[in-house]
């Protein structure tokens, strides 16, 4: 390959030549009939001069083209210069596009985190329970909606179009469930809905069981993603580990939901039973996937 050192080497060499000739970027730009920003982009590695411009810079500083490129070239290689510089420009454009996308992703994540922390701070500071529920509900709902609107951007590197459709459907259902829960809590606080304790318990068991079963059904259809699903430090690092965790989640969800329904009838402490069931539902696939991840990456070293 002709230009081994790439765009950063070319920019550094141009800057060294300009400084050694005691020339400002503005003066150099005038000599080359370009704007000062063009020279700045060359030197910062944000742009690569084409073959014609490389020759002009070499003539300006009275040096061989090889000194600007940072490599030795032969006469037979000169015709390849334009092609190589074009390749470098394509690589630079691709790099700039990826950086722009990553910046957009960071902005979306930052906005979601901001809304989450804002709702948490408000709940801690505010003493009005109903207002706290409303603010938290609106903040979390807004975060989910933002996530849905930017799913393509957030998952574009790991998700194909078919799985993205599944991810969107799951997110929409999550939004609907969350809205129903918030409405129920708000109406209960306003005493628009008066439920006896047994009725509240029945509705809670039904909702939790439905969520567990539904999550088990869609678990294996969820694509490898850092934004939806069983997001753990080890599952988001490796797709195989992700698949193991969600396969286990799919297998155990219906049995756990049935066991939960039976347990609420047998054991009187509803809160304790619910807590144990939810911890078991999350911990079983988490621990199995962690063991798989450890064996895959560290098991053979022992």
Mean pLDDT: 78
Number of helices: 12
Could you tell me how far the N terminus lies from the C terminus, measured between alpha carbons in angstroms? 41 Å
String of helices and strands: HHHHHHHHHHHH
Any idea what the shape is?
elongated
DSSP strand tally = 0
Fraction of residues in H or I helices: over 70%
Q: List unreliable stretches of 5+ residues.
A: 1-5
Strand content: under 5%
| Gyration radius from CA atoms, angstroms | 30 Å
Number of domains: 3
Characterize the main sheet.
none
Structure classification: mainly alpha
3D structure, described in words:
This protein is mainly α and 302 residues long. It folds into three domains: 6-90, 434 Repressor (Amino-terminal Domain) (Orthogonal Bundle), CATH 1.10.260; 126-194; 195-302, no CATH class. Helix content is 75%, strand content 0%. Helix 1 (6-20) crosses helix 3 (36-44), helix 2 (25-32) crosses helix 3 and helix 10 (197-219) packs antiparallel against helix 11. It is elongated and about 90 Å long. The model is unreliable at 1-5 (pLDDT under 50).
């Amino acid at each position: 390959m002709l230009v081994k050192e790439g765009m950063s080497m070319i920019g550094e060499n141009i800057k060294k030549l300009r400084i050694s000739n005691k020339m400002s970027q503005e003066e150099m730009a005038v000599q080359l009939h370009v704007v000062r920003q063009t020279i700045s982009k060359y030197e910062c590695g944000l742009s690569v001069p084409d073959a014609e411009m490389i020759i002009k810079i070499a003539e300006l500083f009275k040096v061989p083209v090889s000194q600007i490129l940072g490599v030795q070239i032969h006469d037979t290689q000169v015709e390849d210069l334009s092609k190589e510089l074009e390749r470098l420009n394509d690589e630079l454009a691709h790099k700039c596009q990826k950086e722009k996308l990553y910046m957009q992703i960071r902005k979306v994540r930052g906005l979601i985190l901001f809304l989450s922390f804002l709702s948490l701070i408000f709940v801690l500071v505010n003493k009005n329970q109903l207002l706290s529920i409303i603010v938290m509900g609106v903040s979390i709902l807004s975060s989910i909606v933002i996530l849905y609107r930017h799913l393509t951007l957030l998952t574009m590197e790991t998700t194909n179009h078919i799985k993205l459709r599944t991810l969107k459907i799951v997110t929409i259902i999550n939004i609907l469930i969350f809205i129903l829960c918030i409405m129920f809590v708000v109406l209960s606080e306003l005493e628009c809905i008066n439920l006896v304790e047994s009725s509240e318990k029945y509705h809670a068991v039904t909702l939790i069981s439905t969520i567990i079963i539904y999550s088990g059904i869609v678990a294996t259809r969820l694509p490898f993603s850092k934004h939806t699903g069983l997001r753990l430090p080890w599952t988001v690092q490796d797709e195989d580990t992700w698949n193991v965790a969600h396969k286990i989640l799919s297998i155990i969800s219906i049995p756990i939901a049935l066991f939960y329904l039976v347990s609420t009838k047998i054991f009187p402490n509803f809160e304790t039973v619910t807590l144990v069931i939810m911890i078991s539902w999350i911990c079983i696939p988490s621990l199995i996937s962690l063991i798989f991840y450890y064996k895959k990456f560290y098991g053979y070293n022992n």
